[in-house]
Amino acid sequence: LGDVVVGVNETPTVDLAFADVLALLSDENALKKVVHFSSRAEVERRRGATMSTPAPAPSARFTSRVRRARVQEPATSGGPFADYEVVCALRLDGTKVEHETVRKWVVWRRYSDFEKLEHKVRKSLGWHLQGLAFPPKRPFVLDKLAPDFLEQRRADLDAWWQRVVAVDRACDFHMHHCDPDLKAFLDADANLDPRRLVDAPDAHPPRRRSTATLAKSTGRPASLKSGLSKRRLKSANGD
Protein backbone atom coordinates (compact mmCIF):
# COMPACT_ATOMS: atom_id res chain seq x y z
CA LEU A 1 0.00 0.00 0.00
CA GLY A 2 3.02 2.28 0.16
CA ASP A 3 2.69 2.94 3.91
CA VAL A 4 5.67 2.98 6.27
CA VAL A 5 5.98 1.08 9.54
CA VAL A 6 6.64 3.78 12.15
CA GLY A 7 6.33 1.70 15.30
CA VAL A 8 6.00 -1.77 16.77
CA ASN A 9 4.23 -1.72 20.13
CA GLU A 10 5.88 1.24 21.90
CA THR A 11 9.14 1.18 19.91
CA PRO A 12 9.56 3.82 17.15
CA THR A 13 10.98 2.21 14.01
CA VAL A 14 11.40 5.12 11.60
CA ASP A 15 15.16 5.38 12.17
CA LEU A 16 15.80 1.66 12.66
CA ALA A 17 17.48 -0.56 10.10
CA PHE A 18 15.28 -2.97 8.16
CA ALA A 19 16.82 -5.98 9.94
CA ASP A 20 16.05 -4.46 13.35
CA VAL A 21 12.41 -3.89 12.38
CA LEU A 22 12.12 -7.51 11.24
CA ALA A 23 13.61 -8.63 14.56
CA LEU A 24 10.91 -6.71 16.44
CA LEU A 25 8.17 -8.20 14.29
CA SER A 26 9.43 -11.74 14.75
CA ASP A 27 10.16 -11.46 18.47
CA GLU A 28 8.47 -14.53 20.00
CA ASN A 29 8.68 -13.09 23.52
CA ALA A 30 6.15 -10.39 22.67
CA LEU A 31 2.72 -11.93 23.15
CA LYS A 32 1.01 -9.04 21.37
CA LYS A 33 2.33 -6.92 18.52
CA VAL A 34 0.71 -3.61 17.54
CA VAL A 35 2.15 -2.25 14.31
CA HIS A 36 1.74 1.45 13.56
CA PHE A 37 1.73 2.75 9.97
CA SER A 38 1.97 6.18 8.39
CA SER A 39 2.05 7.44 4.82
CA ARG A 40 5.44 7.97 3.21
CA ALA A 41 4.63 11.65 2.60
CA GLU A 42 3.95 12.18 6.28
CA VAL A 43 7.21 10.47 7.27
CA GLU A 44 9.18 12.65 4.89
CA ARG A 45 7.38 15.76 6.11
CA ARG A 46 8.22 14.89 9.72
CA ARG A 47 11.83 14.31 8.83
CA GLY A 48 12.03 17.59 6.94
CA ALA A 49 13.48 15.82 3.91
CA THR A 50 13.63 17.50 0.52
CA MET A 51 11.41 15.73 -1.95
CA SER A 52 11.35 16.04 -5.73
CA THR A 53 7.62 16.75 -5.54
CA PRO A 54 5.92 18.54 -2.66
CA ALA A 55 4.10 16.34 -0.17
CA PRO A 56 0.33 16.66 -0.22
CA ALA A 57 -1.18 18.79 2.50
CA PRO A 58 -2.65 16.90 5.45
CA SER A 59 -6.27 15.93 4.94
CA ALA A 60 -8.78 18.37 6.37
CA ARG A 61 -11.72 16.00 5.97
CA PHE A 62 -12.00 15.71 9.74
CA THR A 63 -12.06 18.90 11.76
CA SER A 64 -12.62 19.33 15.46
CA ARG A 65 -12.08 21.82 18.24
CA VAL A 66 -12.67 22.31 21.94
CA ARG A 67 -15.28 25.04 21.64
CA ARG A 68 -16.44 25.95 25.14
CA ALA A 69 -16.60 24.99 28.81
CA ARG A 70 -19.52 24.67 31.19
CA VAL A 71 -20.02 23.98 34.89
CA GLN A 72 -22.19 20.99 35.79
CA GLU A 73 -24.13 20.50 39.02
CA PRO A 74 -24.55 16.73 39.61
CA ALA A 75 -28.06 15.71 40.59
CA THR A 76 -27.00 12.87 42.89
CA SER A 77 -23.66 13.16 44.66
CA GLY A 78 -20.39 15.02 44.38
CA GLY A 79 -19.64 18.67 43.88
CA PRO A 80 -19.81 20.80 40.71
CA PHE A 81 -17.36 20.10 37.91
CA ALA A 82 -16.45 21.47 34.51
CA ASP A 83 -16.54 19.73 31.17
CA TYR A 84 -15.67 20.83 27.66
CA GLU A 85 -17.57 20.68 24.39
CA VAL A 86 -15.71 18.96 21.54
CA VAL A 87 -17.31 19.67 18.17
CA CYS A 88 -16.52 17.34 15.24
CA ALA A 89 -17.18 17.24 11.50
CA LEU A 90 -16.23 14.46 9.07
CA ARG A 91 -16.79 14.65 5.32
CA LEU A 92 -17.16 11.43 3.33
CA ASP A 93 -17.18 10.93 -0.41
CA GLY A 94 -20.61 10.14 -1.78
CA THR A 95 -21.62 7.80 -4.57
CA LYS A 96 -22.36 10.68 -6.93
CA VAL A 97 -19.76 12.84 -8.65
CA GLU A 98 -18.88 15.93 -6.60
CA HIS A 99 -21.28 14.76 -3.94
CA GLU A 100 -20.29 14.11 -0.36
CA THR A 101 -21.90 13.49 2.99
CA VAL A 102 -21.02 15.29 6.17
CA ARG A 103 -21.58 14.25 9.74
CA LYS A 104 -21.36 16.74 12.58
CA TRP A 105 -21.60 15.81 16.22
CA VAL A 106 -20.66 16.98 19.70
CA VAL A 107 -19.31 15.24 22.79
CA TRP A 108 -18.65 16.65 26.24
CA ARG A 109 -15.50 15.57 28.06
CA ARG A 110 -13.85 16.47 31.36
CA TYR A 111 -10.21 17.41 31.80
CA SER A 112 -9.57 13.97 33.33
CA ASP A 113 -10.99 12.34 30.16
CA PHE A 114 -8.50 14.26 28.03
CA GLU A 115 -5.74 13.28 30.42
CA LYS A 116 -6.59 9.57 30.14
CA LEU A 117 -6.68 9.88 26.36
CA GLU A 118 -3.26 11.54 26.36
CA HIS A 119 -1.72 8.53 28.11
CA LYS A 120 -3.21 6.21 25.49
CA VAL A 121 -2.32 8.17 22.34
CA ARG A 122 1.16 8.83 23.70
CA LYS A 123 1.74 5.10 23.24
CA SER A 124 0.00 4.64 19.90
CA LEU A 125 0.92 7.97 18.26
CA GLY A 126 4.03 8.80 20.27
CA TRP A 127 6.30 9.42 17.27
CA HIS A 128 3.85 11.98 15.91
CA LEU A 129 3.45 13.75 19.26
CA GLN A 130 7.11 14.39 20.03
CA GLY A 131 7.55 17.74 21.75
CA LEU A 132 3.83 18.10 22.48
CA ALA A 133 3.09 18.72 26.17
CA PHE A 134 -0.29 18.09 27.71
CA PRO A 135 -1.85 21.05 29.57
CA PRO A 136 -0.78 20.80 33.25
CA LYS A 137 -3.18 20.27 36.14
CA ARG A 138 -2.22 23.53 37.96
CA PRO A 139 -2.81 22.19 41.51
CA PHE A 140 -2.21 25.59 43.16
CA VAL A 141 -5.20 27.25 41.48
CA LEU A 142 -7.87 27.66 44.16
CA ASP A 143 -10.96 28.13 42.00
CA LYS A 144 -10.84 25.82 38.99
CA LEU A 145 -14.41 26.70 38.07
CA ALA A 146 -13.69 30.40 37.62
CA PRO A 147 -14.57 31.62 34.09
CA ASP A 148 -11.07 32.95 33.40
CA PHE A 149 -9.45 29.69 34.42
CA LEU A 150 -11.91 27.60 32.40
CA GLU A 151 -11.32 29.69 29.29
CA GLN A 152 -7.54 29.39 29.63
CA ARG A 153 -7.79 25.64 30.14
CA ARG A 154 -10.14 25.35 27.14
CA ALA A 155 -7.63 27.22 24.96
CA ASP A 156 -4.75 25.02 26.21
CA LEU A 157 -6.73 21.84 25.60
CA ASP A 158 -7.71 23.00 22.13
CA ALA A 159 -4.09 23.78 21.19
CA TRP A 160 -3.10 20.26 22.28
CA TRP A 161 -6.15 18.77 20.55
CA GLN A 162 -5.33 20.38 17.20
CA ARG A 163 -1.95 18.65 17.15
CA VAL A 164 -3.52 15.28 17.99
CA VAL A 165 -6.29 15.34 15.36
CA ALA A 166 -3.77 16.54 12.74
CA VAL A 167 -1.84 13.24 12.94
CA ASP A 168 -1.88 11.61 9.53
CA ARG A 169 -4.82 9.18 9.15
CA ALA A 170 -5.52 9.00 12.89
CA CYS A 171 -9.01 10.47 12.44
CA ASP A 172 -10.08 8.56 9.32
CA PHE A 173 -12.86 7.05 11.43
CA HIS A 174 -14.53 5.46 8.41
CA MET A 175 -11.34 3.44 7.69
CA HIS A 176 -9.67 0.57 9.52
CA HIS A 177 -6.38 2.43 10.08
CA CYS A 178 -7.80 5.15 12.36
CA ASP A 179 -6.69 5.40 15.98
CA PRO A 180 -9.10 3.30 18.10
CA ASP A 181 -8.62 5.41 21.24
CA LEU A 182 -9.55 8.63 19.43
CA LYS A 183 -12.49 6.84 17.85
CA ALA A 184 -13.79 5.73 21.25
CA PHE A 185 -13.15 9.13 22.85
CA LEU A 186 -15.36 10.82 20.26
CA ASP A 187 -18.04 8.10 20.12
CA ALA A 188 -17.40 7.96 16.38
CA ASP A 189 -19.08 4.59 15.80
CA ALA A 190 -22.41 5.81 17.11
CA ASN A 191 -22.20 9.16 15.35
CA LEU A 192 -21.16 7.76 11.96
CA ASP A 193 -24.15 5.46 11.65
CA PRO A 194 -25.04 5.68 7.91
CA ARG A 195 -28.69 6.19 8.81
CA ARG A 196 -27.75 9.43 10.56
CA LEU A 197 -25.51 10.93 7.86
CA VAL A 198 -26.51 14.25 6.32
CA ASP A 199 -26.09 14.99 2.62
CA ALA A 200 -24.06 18.17 2.50
CA PRO A 201 -25.42 19.66 -0.76
CA ASP A 202 -29.01 18.68 0.06
CA ALA A 203 -29.07 19.54 3.74
CA HIS A 204 -32.18 21.64 3.10
CA PRO A 205 -34.81 19.82 0.99
CA PRO A 206 -36.47 21.83 -1.80
CA ARG A 207 -39.52 23.79 -0.70
CA ARG A 208 -42.84 22.65 -2.09
CA ARG A 209 -44.70 25.16 -4.18
CA SER A 210 -47.97 26.21 -2.60
CA THR A 211 -51.35 26.15 -4.34
CA ALA A 212 -51.31 29.94 -4.37
CA THR A 213 -48.00 29.92 -6.22
CA LEU A 214 -49.36 27.48 -8.79
CA ALA A 215 -52.41 29.65 -9.33
CA LYS A 216 -50.22 32.70 -9.83
CA SER A 217 -47.96 30.96 -12.33
CA THR A 218 -50.84 29.59 -14.44
CA GLY A 219 -53.05 32.66 -14.25
CA ARG A 220 -56.00 30.51 -13.06
CA PRO A 221 -57.71 30.72 -9.68
CA ALA A 222 -56.61 28.06 -7.21
CA SER A 223 -60.09 26.49 -7.03
CA LEU A 224 -60.28 26.25 -10.82
CA LYS A 225 -56.81 24.68 -10.97
CA SER A 226 -57.88 22.09 -8.38
CA GLY A 227 -61.10 21.33 -10.28
CA LEU A 228 -59.26 20.80 -13.55
CA SER A 229 -56.85 18.40 -11.86
CA LYS A 230 -59.73 16.32 -10.44
CA ARG A 231 -61.49 16.08 -13.84
CA ARG A 232 -58.26 14.98 -15.50
CA LEU A 233 -57.77 12.30 -12.84
CA LYS A 234 -61.27 10.92 -13.40
CA SER A 235 -60.68 10.84 -17.13
CA ALA A 236 -57.41 8.97 -16.65
CA ASN A 237 -59.17 6.39 -14.44
CA GLY A 238 -61.86 5.84 -16.95
CA ASP A 239 -64.63 7.39 -14.78
Structure description:
By secondary structure, this protein is an alpha+beta fold. It contains 8 helices and 7 strands; from the N terminus they run ββαβαβββααααβαα. It has helices at residues 18-25, 40-47, 111-124, 147-165, 180-185, 188-191, 211-218, 222-236, and strands at residues 3-8, 11-12, 35-39, 62-72, 81-93, 100-109, 198-199. The strands form 2 sheets. Strands 4-5-6-7 form a 4-stranded antiparallel β-sheet. A 3-stranded antiparallel β-sheet has the order 2-1-3. β1 and β2 (11-12) form a beta hairpin. The longest helix has 19 residues, at 147-165. It starts with a strand and ends with a helix. The model is unreliable at 49-60, 197-218, 220-226 and 228-239 (pLDDT under 50).
- From the N-terminal CA to the C-terminal CA, the straight-line distance is 67 Å
Residue runs with pLDDT of under 50 for 5 or more positions: 49-60, 197-218, 220-226, 228-239
Shape: globular
Total helices: the number is 8
β-sheet strand percentage: 15-25%
Looking at the chains present, what oligomeric state does this protein adopt?
single chain
What's the overall average pLDDT, rounded? 75
> SSE order, as H and E?
EEHEHEEEHHHHEHH
* Tally of strands: 7
By secondary-structure content and strand pairing, the structural class works out as: alpha+beta
| Cα Rg | 27 Å
Helix percent reads 25-40%
> Main sheet: which strands, in order across?
4-5-6-7
Please describe the biggest sheet, giving its number of strands, its sense, and whether it closes into a barrel: 4 strands, antiparallel
